[in-house]
Specification:
Elements: H1 3-9, H2 11-28, E1 44-50, H3 56-72, E2 77-85, E3 88-95, H4 101-115, E4 127-130, E5 139-145, H5 150-166, E6 171-177, E7 182-188, H6 190-196, H7 200-209, E8 212-221, E9 224-232, H8 237-242, E10 244-246, E11 252-254, E12 259-265, E13 270-274, E14 277-286, H9 292-308, E15 315-321, H10 322-352, H11 355-378, H12 385-393, H13 395-414, H14 419-443, H15 454-488, H16 506-530, H17 532-549, E16 565-571, H18 578-592, E17 598-606, E18 620-627, H19 637-647, E19 655-660, E20 677-682, H20 686-701, E21 706-711, E22 717-724, H21 726-732, H22 736-748, E23 750-757, E24 760-767, H23 770-773, E25 783-785, E26 791-793, E27 798-805, E28 808-812, E29 815-824, H24 829-840, E30 850-853, H25 856-885, H26 889-894, H27 899-911, H28 918-947, H29 952-983, H30 990-1035
Parallel strand pairs: 7-24
Antiparallel strand pairs: 1-3, 1-4, 2-3, 2-28, 5-14, 5-15, 6-14, 7-12, 8-9, 10-11, 13-14, 13-17, 16-18, 16-19, 17-18, 20-29, 20-30, 21-29, 22-27, 23-24, 25-26, 28-29
Length: 1044
C-alpha cells in the first residue's frame, strides 16, 4: 500500500490518527518521571560488620580479610575494596555491568553464612546492602537560629519539622542531625561497684529488665474478652534510681546507691551552623519510585506550613535541593529546543517563501516530540537531560524528512501538476531516499545493544528517545505532509516567481541569494568535475589536518558542569579534639563569607552527625558553600573554588581540599571520593606505601593544573595496646571477650534501655564519670569477676603499653591500598591524566608494590565502547543503505560524506575549547546517521536521472542544481536548531554543548565538502566500475556455440 496515496485519498483518517497520537502523548508526558539522568542500576553491594572496640589492625586481620576472600570468588566480580576502621569493617563488591545484582547479593549472603563461624564471636552479624542512588537525600534542610538554644532547635526538628516533612507525598524517611539530644545517664562509682561485688552487666541488665511493657493475653470482663497489658516502663528518673540490683545471698540494693542518675544531654561531638547561626540538619530521602522534582515540590509546600508554626527567630532553610539543578538543566534544554525550533521555522519560511508550507513543516515537530513521549512512557523511560538533550539534538533532523518530501512536492507543483498529483508524485519520488535516511539515523544507535557497562545505561535511553521521535517524524513526513500539501497548497502560479526590482521582503532577498548561490554552485561543481584530483587531495589534506588538530583538543570522560555548589573539606591529625577542629572551621568560614557570589554557608564539624551531614570524626569538618544562581554571579564555580583554595592555603597541620559539586560525574568513571585524579598504590607494608605515596604526591604537586594533592594514607596515630595474658585469664575462667566487653563498657558506656516520654525515646546510658575515664591509670582499677565469683583487677591478667597504629586500613582486591588524590583546575581531566601517567612511569616501585592511575581502566573501557559503537554504526548505516537501494555501489559512494564530518567535529571542538568526551563521541555517532542524508538525496536523484537517459556528467550537474535547496534547507534547520545548545548558556548547558558542537560543525563542513566531493567520487567510482567490467569481460571465456 502506498502510504502517500492513502493519506491524500483519506485525509480524515490521517487527521484522526495524528489527533490520537497527540492525545496519547499529552496524557503520557505528565506521567513520565523527571530526573537528572536516566535510571542506572549500579552493580555494587556492601558488606558491613561492627566489632565495637576492635582496632583497625584487628578488624583487618580477623574480619575484613576473611570476608574479602569469600567475596572474591563470586562470579562476575570486578573488584573488591574495603576499609577497616576502629570497630567496623566495610567491604564493597563491584560486579561487572549486566550482572543481576539481586541474584549476586543472594550469593553474597550465602557466602557470608559460611564465613560467619570464622568471625569473632562478639562481632555483629554481617549486613549486606545494595548501592542505591535513592539512598542519597534529595533535599537537605537546616533549622537555624541565634535566638534559641540547640536543645530547642533539636526538639523542634524532631517533633515539628520532621513529622510534617515525613507526611509529604513521596517521602521515604527523614533524618535529623545535630543539636543537643536529651539523655539519662547513670554515672557509676567504681568503688561502690567493687564494694558490692557487682559488674556493669548486672547493672545494665537490671535496668533493662525493669523497664518492660507487654501484652499478658486476654481476660474475661463479663461476657467479653479484653486484652490485659502490663505496663512496667519508667515514668520518671526517680523510678530509675529505685531499680534494685540483686546481690549475693538474696539481697539487693537500689541503683541509686551505686552512682548518680542525671537528666542531661549527649556529649557534643558534632555541631552544625548555617551562615554562622546554630543549626540542626534535616535530610530527606524519597521513595524508590518517587519523582525527584515532584517530591521536592511537595516538601517545599510542607515547609511553607511548617514555618508558620515555628517560634520567632527560628528559620527553616534549604541547604541543597537536587531537584533545583534538575529543573534548571531541563528548563535550559527546553528553552534551547524551543529557540532552535523558532530558528528552524524562520529558515523554512525564507527557503519556501510560503506561510502554508512552513506551517505544514512546523506541525511535524510537535507531533513527533509528543509521539516520542508516549513511546517513552510505554518503554519505561524518564524525562531527563539525556533524553531531552537527544530530542533537542534531533530537532533539526525531525524536519529533514518533511522538508525533503515538501520540497519535492513544491517542485512538482512548479512543473504544473495539481496539488493532489504533486503530493502523490513528489512523495513517491523521494520516498526511498527519505526511508533510507530515517533508517540510517536509527541504525546508528543499534550498537548500543551490543555494549555493556555504564555507557549502555547512559546512552540507551537517548538512543530510544531519538529513535522514537524519528519514527514518528518519518510517519508524519510520508502521511501528514502529503495530505496537508494536497489540501493547503494552491496550484502553482507564475505570480509566485520572484518579483523584479526593489523589494523589502526578506524572503525575496533570500530567494535571489539562493538563485545566485545555485548558479555559483553549478559553476563550481563543473570546475570540480574537471579537477577531481584537486578536490580529493584537498579533502585528504583537511582530514590529515584534523587528525593533527585532534592532539590539541582535550579529553575527559564527562564535561564539567557549573552547579553553583562547592565543598570545603577540613582534616586534622587523628585524635584532634572537637574544639580545635571547630575553631579552624570557624576561621575558614570567616575567610570565605565575604566572597560576593556566595549565597549561603553550611558547616558541619565532628562525628556522629549521621545521614547526609556526617563528618568522619572529631578531627574533620565539612563546609558546604551554595553560590548565587549563575545569572546573578560574576564568577564561575571553578573560579570561586580556586579563590577559596588560595584563601585557605596557610594552615599548616591541616589538609583542606576544595572541590566543586558535579552531578554529571559518573560512578566508576571518575576519581574516588569526588577527586578528579586518583593514584592507587598497592603493597603489603604500610610504611613502604607511605614513603611511596609521598614520592608520588611530590611528582603530582609539580603539575601546575593539579590542586589539593594529598596522600590519603593515614599516618600512624598514638594508641594504647592491651596484651592479655591468656594463661592467667584461663586460670581465672575469664574469656578474652569478657575482658573486651568490660573495658569497652567502662570507657564508652552502655545504653541499658530507653526512657519513653510522649512520642520520644530517651536513651539511658550507664557509664563511669569522665573524671574516671579521662585518667588512663584508672584502667587498672577496672574489676573483673572470675568464674568463681571472685573479683580481680584488670592488671592481674592484662598489660597496657603505649603504641601506635593506623586510623584506618584500606584494601583493593585484597591488597593494602594508599591513594594520592588531586583536583584538576582549568584543564581537561584526560589531558592531566596523561601527564600524571607520564610522571608515574618514571617511578619504579619496589617488588610487590604497584602504582596505577585510578579509574583509568574504566575510562579506557568507556571510550573503547564508544569507539566500537562508532565503527559499528558506520557499518550498519552502509548495510541499511545497501539493503534499501539493493546496491553495494551507490551506498559506497554515499559513505564518502563521512570523512568531512570528522574534520568539522574536531574543528568545532577546537574552536569552542570543548573536549572529546562521552557526549561528543555520541554526537559523532549521531552524525554518522545525519550526514549521509545529503549524499543519499544527491546520489538517489542522480541515479533517477541516469535511468531517464541522462549522461553521468549531466545527471550530476542537474541533481546538484535541483537538490541544492533541500540539502541546504535540512542542513540549516538542523544546525540552527542546535545553535542555542552550541552556545551553551544556562545552568546544566555543559552536558549537551559538546555533543551539539560536534553535530553542528560536523554537519556544516560535511555539507560544504559533500556537495563537491560526492559527485567527484561518483565519477571516479563509475570510471573504475567501467574499467573493471571491461577487464572481466576480456577475461571471460567466449560463449560455446549452441548445439543444432
Amino acid at each position: 500500500m502506498n502510504l502517500a496515496n492513502f493519506s491524500v485519498n483519506r485525509p480524515v483518517t490521517i487527521f484522526m490518527m495524528m489527533i490520537a497520537l497527540v492525545i496519547i502523548g499529552s496524557i503520557a508526558a505528565p506521567l513520565l518521571p523527571v530526573d537528572l539522568y536516566p535510571n542506572m542500576e549500579i552493580p555494587t553491594a556492601n558488606v558491613s560488620v561492627n566489632w565495637p572496640g576492635a582496632s583497625p589492625g584487628q578488624v583487618e586481620s580477623q574480619v575484613t580479610k576473611r570476608i574479602e576472600a569469600s567475596m572474591a570468588t563470586i562470579a562476575n566480580v570486578q573488584s573488591v575494596s574495603s576499609t577497616s576502621r576502629t570497630g567496623s569493617s566495610n567491604v564493597t563488591v563491584q560486579f561487572n555491568f549486566g550482572t543481576d545484582i539481586s541474584e549476586a547479593t543472594l550469593t553474597m549472603r550465602d557466602r557470608l553464612d559460611r564465613v560467619k563461624r570464622q568471625l569473632p564471636t562478639d562481632a555483629d552479624a554481617p549486613v549486606v546492602s545494595r548501592a542505591d542512588p535513592n539512598s542519597q537525600p534529595i533535599l537537605n534542610l537546616a533549622l537555624y537560629s541565634n535566638s534559641v538554644d540547640l536543645i530547642t532547635l533539636r526538639d523542634l526538628a524532631d517533633n515539628v519539622v520532621s513529622p510534617a516533612v515525613q507526611r509529604a507525598d513521596g517521602v521515604a524517611s527523614v533524618g535529623v542531625t545535630g543539636g543537643r539530644v536529651r539523655q539519662i545517664q547513670l554515672l557509676i562509682d567504681q568503688n561502690k561497684l567493687n564494694q558490692y561485688g557487682l559488674t556493669f552487666n548486672q547493672v545494665t541488665s537490671a535496668l533493662s529488665n525493669d523497664n518492660q511493657s507487654t501484652d499478658a493475653g486476654l481476660v474475661y470482663k463479663g461476657d467479653q474478652l479484653v486484652p490485659l497489658t502490663i505496663k512496667g516502663e519508667f515514668k520518671s528518673t526517680a523510678e530509675i534510681e529505685k531499680v534494685r540490683v540483686s546481690l549475693s545471698r538474696g539481697q539487693s540494693i537500689p541503683i541509686g546507691e551505686l552512682g548518680q542518675v542525671i537528666d542531661t544531654y549527649q556529649e557534643i561531638t558534632f555541631e552544625s551552623r548555617r551562615n554562622g547561626e546554630k543549626s540542626v540538619g534535616i535530610s530527606v530521602l524519597k521513595q524508590s519510585d518517587g519523582n525527584t522534582v515532584s517530591v521536592a515540590d511537595n516538601i517545599r509546600k510542607a515547609m511553607a506550613d511548617i514555618e508558620k508554626n515555628l517560634p520567632e527567630g527560628v528559620k527553616l532553610g534549604v541547604l541543597n535541593d537536587s531537584s533545583k539543578f534538575i529543573k534548571s538543566s531541563i528548563n535550559t534544554v527546553v528553552e534551547h529546543t524551543l529557540l532552535g525550533g523558532v530558528f528552524s521555522v524562520i529558515i523554512l519560511m525564507l527557503f519556501l517563501n510560503s506561510i502554508r508550507a512552513t506551517l505544514i513543516i512546523g506541525v511535524v515537530i510537535p507531533i513527533s516530540v509528543i509521539s516520542a513521549f508516549s513511546m517513552m512512557y510505554f518503554s519505561g523511560q524518564t524525562i531527563n537531560t539525556i533524553t531531552l538533550g537527544g530530542l533537542a539534538l534531533g530537532l533539526g533532523s525531525l524536519v529533514d524528512f518533511a522538508v525533503v518530501v515538501l520540497e519535492s512536492i513544491f517542485r512538482k507543483r512548479e512543473e504544473g501538476l495539481t496539488p493532489v498529483e504533486a503530493a502523490k508524485q513528489g512523495t513517491a519520488e523521494v520516498g526511498t531516499a527519505v526511508l533510507a535516511s530515517a533508517l540510517a539515523q536509527i541504525a546508528v544507535f543499534a550498537p548500543t545493544l551490543f555494549i555493556n557497562g555504564l555507557v549502555k545505561n547512559f546512552f540507551v535511553p537517548m538512543a530510544l528517545t531519538v529513535s522514537f521521535s524519528h519514527i514518528a517524524a518519518l510517519f508524519a513526513a510520508i502521511t501528514l505532509v502529503p495530505m496537508l500539501a494536497a489540501k493547503l497548497l494552491k496550484k502553482h502560479s507564475h505570480d509566485e516567481t520572484l518579483p523584479e526590482g526593489r523589494s523589502y521582503n526578506p524572503a525575496v532577498w533570500f530567494g535571489r541569494g539562493m538563485n545566485r548561490l545555485t548558479r555559483g554552485y553549478s559553476g563550481l561543481l563543473k570546475w570540480s568535475l574537471g579537477h577531481r584530483a584537486i578536490i580529493v587531495l584537498v579533502t585528504v589534506g583537511m582530514l590529515g589536518g584534523s587528525v593533527f588538530l585532534a592532539r590539541f583538543v582535550g579529553t575527559e570522560i564527562t564535561p564539567k558542569t557549573d552547579e553553583g555548589q562547592l565543598f570545603v573539606n577540613i582534616s586534622l591529625a587523628q585524635g584532634t579534639k572537637f574544639e580545635i577542629t571547630n575553631a579552624l572551621a570557624t576561621k575558614v568560614e570567616d575567610l570565605i563569607k565575604n566572597i560576593p557570589d556566595i549565597e549561603s554557608i553550611f558547616t558541619t564539624v565532628g562525628g556522629g552527625g549521621g545521614g547526609a551531614f556526617q563528618s568522619a570524626s572529631t578531627n574533620s569538618a565539612n563546609i558546604q558553600v551554595t553560590l548565587k544562581p549563575l545569572a546573578e554571579r560574576k564568577q564561575k564555580t571553578e573560579q570561586i573554588v580556586e579563590q577559596i583554595r588560595n584563601l585557605t592555603s596557610g594552615n599548616p597541620g591541616a589538609q583542606i581540599s576544595v572541590n566543586a559539586r558535579s552531578s554529571i560525574r559518573l560512578p566508576g568513571l571518575g576519581g574516588g571520593g569526588g577527586a578528579d585524579i586518583q593514584v592507587n598504590l598497592n603493597g603489603p607494608d604500610m610504611a613502604v606505601l607511605s614513603k611511596l605515596g609521598d614520592m608520588v604526591a611530590e611528582e603530582l604537586r609539580a603539575i601546575p593544573t593539579l590542586r589539593n594533592v594529598q596522600n590519603t594514607l593515614d599516618r600512624n596515630i598514638p594508641e594504647f595496646d592491651m596484651t592479655i595474658d591468656r594463661e592467667a585469664a584461663s586460670y581465672y575462667g575469664i574469656s578474652v571477650r569478657e575482658v573486651m566487653t568490660s573495658i569497652r563498657t567502662a570507657y564508652q558506656g552502655s545504653v541499658a534501655t530507653n526512657f519513653k516520654t510522649g512520642d520520644s525515646q530517651i536513651s539511658v546510658l550507664v557509664k563511669y564519670p569522665s573524671e574516671f575515664t579521662n585518667n588512663l591509670e584508672n584502667l587498672n582499677q577496672v574489676v573483673l569477676t572470675t568464674a568463681s565469683g571472685a573479683q580481680i583487677p584488670l592488671n592481674a591478667i592484662a598489660k597496657v603499653e603505649p603504641g601506635s597504629g593506623p586510623a584506618q586500613i584500606r584494601h583493593i582486591n585484597q591488597q593494602r591500598l594508599a591513594t594520592i588524590q588531586g583536583a584538576v583546575f582549568n584543564a581537561p581531566i584526560g589531558d592531566v591524566s596523561k601527564e600524571v601517567q607520564a610522571r608515574l612511569d618514571t617511578i619504579q616501585p619496589p617488588d610487590g608494590y604497584t602504582i596505577s592511575l585510578g579509574s583509568q581502566a574504566d575510562s579506557n573501557n568507556a571510550f573503547k565502547s564508544l569507539y566500537m559503537m562508532l565503527g559499528l554504526s558506520i557499518v550498519l548505516v552502509y548495510m541499511v543503505m545497501a539493503s534499501q537501494f539493493e546496491s553495494l555501489y551507490g551506498p559506497f559512494i554515499i559513505m564518502f560524506s563521512l570523512p568531512p564530518t570528522f574534520i568539522g567535529a574536531i574543528l568545532g571542538l577546537y574552536l569552542t575549547h570543548r573536549t572529546i568526551n562521552m557526549n561528543s563521541v555520541m554526537g559523532m555517532i549521531m552524525l554518522v546517521g545525519i550526514v549521509v542524508n545529503n549524499a543519499i538525496v544527491l546520489v538517489d536523484y542522480t541515479n533517477q536521472l541516469r535511468k531517464r537517459g541522462m549522461t553521468l556528467y549531466d545527471a550530476l550537474l542537474e541533481a546538484g542544481r535541483i537538490r541544492l535547496r533541500p540539502i541546504l534547507m535540512t542542513t540549516a534547520t538542523t544546525v540552527l536548531a542546535m545553535l542555542p545548545l552550541v552556545i551553551g548558556f544556562g545552568e546544566g548547558a555543559e552536558a549537551q554543548a559538546s555533543m551539539a558542537t560536534v553535530v553542528a560543525f560536523g554537519l556544516t563542513l560535511s555539507t560544504m565538502i559533500t556537495l563537491l566531493l560526492v559527485p567527484v567520487v561518483y565519477t571516479l567510482m563509475d570510471g573504475l566500475k567501467d574499467r573493471l567490467q571491461r577487464y572481466w569481460k576480456k577475461q571471460s571465456p567466449p560463449a560455446l556455440p549452441a548445439d543444432h
